[in-house]
Amino acid sequence: MSTAILPIMSGLHAPLLRRCGRWTPQRLLTTYYPSTHCTFPAVKSSFHTSPSPRSSEAVPLSAVSGAVRSTMSAPKQDAWVGHLGPAGFDLRSDTMTTPTASMLAAIQSCSLLDDVFVEDPTTIELESHVAELAGKEAALLVLSGTMGNQLALRSLLTQPPYSVLCDHRAHIIKYEAGGVASLSGAMVKPVVPRNGAYLTLEDIEANADIDDDVHTCPTRVISLENTLNGVITPLAEVKRIAEFAHKNDIKFHCDGARLWEAVAAGGGSLSEYCSLFDTVSLCFSKGLGAPIGSILVGSSAHIKHARWVRKSIGGGLRQSGVVAAPARVAVDETFGKGPNGEGGLLKLSHGTAKTIEKLWVGLGGKLTHPVETNMCWLDLDAAGCSTEAFVAFGKEAGLKLIGNRLVVHYQIAQNEDEVLPRLKQVFRRALEGGAPGAKQSQGPTNIYKPR
Fold it and tell me: What PANTHER family has UniProt attached to this entry (predicted)?
């Protein structure tokens, strides 16, 4: 019987057994991560614990040594290489972070019960912990930030007609596949902030439809993304908008995929921000570095409704501990264990972003947005460099770029001794004119596709 060979990965010991015609890791030599609060003997001994009707004799190491040597000599693309792997040279997005060994160790120690039945201890503990950090009654684990936003909006919107007011650059209008329309049947009203950076109360007042004019689509939800383009919406401004929303019986949602960054930068505590919103979506897989997942926080009533909606769109999770466990490690290790991100790693990326800003400006470059957290927006038009040329320069220097937006995550920060000299080389070429005669652009209109 032909059987695939499971690679033996660096830093882990995985004796191989043949069970039911497939290779199975019998034991992973890892450290139990205490925040999961769960250890299951079956999980410790093997990932696949069903008794095998076939032979379970040990496979001689000589039979697989050649394949193992071949695998170990191949370029590393997995988590164990950390910042020395591809993530340490990838400035396209903070979604490029890879999970750490401690995150993967937590997966081995997690509970494996059913979240649709709300029975999984690892998941329940994560939801309780983040709800407490955010100062909210309840939380719901979801698979992505898009899912979190869409569940929140669907839960907040009741009887049509209704509309959602948001920044014209917001993720919910540009990068969620029209989900607000298809899932909630709502109109989205995009607003251009007058200050060019973030929405203010004056922007909201000028664009919200709150009267009884039958020609309009009433504003029922205000959705605020924080951070947006790496820029923080100040806590004081959020308070002003929240007061307006509550006064006019408008629900208030925060796309807080990168709210962790605003908190780490000193914008306010997580609970201070979250207390102003009805619902907040927080992402684990961007700057925090978990492999997957987001979480929605809010009142018990809103989260109960969101759980129902999650099930209706196929988001119900069975053995959800494998998602929740590394997310919990990411919160503790990358964000930090306190409400202000104390002891976390996000500030490292902010410092590297400021260093990149100084490097670019010092060479004569200009920015399109201020550097406040982990993003650096370069004005390539002013430099006379096309986006295509800039991306090509990065590739030649061993860096992955997508356009004029450079996103720094902690694995870039840990690798800045390698990254900064390469960026300096790229910057010099870009500021020398890049690709003379090339058609210039104002940067990517779609952050996932350079043009």
Answer: L-THREONINE ALDOLASE, L-THREONINE ALDOLASE-RELATED
